[in-house]
Amino acid sequence: MLYTSELFYVDEFLRGKQRKLPPEDFEFWVMQAQGYVDEYTFNSIKNNPDNLLNYKEEIERCACELAEYLYENEGYKNKKSETISDRSAAYKIGVEYYICQNNLLMTGLMYRGSNR
Description:
This protein has 5 helices and 2 strands. It is mostly helical. The protein has one domain (6-107).
């Protein structure tokens, strides 16, 4: 089960802006994004489907944003910098975490501690 749909991506996430994810690649990149979401939420969505219902919009936005980021930065994962000829570029490590944090922090899904 995908954490978001192409309909949500186009209608709610993009809201008229140009899409970055090609329709034929949408499912692949969302599945890649879900791996990060599951990692940073300690599988709290996968292990408790109620979380997907309770925080549906936040999870969908996170999955869309992550999928776009991963698509745009394919092949550059964990690179700090790169120089080719006279061009150079720097890449941030851990951007995936910050995308999840920005979208999911207030949901409690990224909290691993005890609820005593």
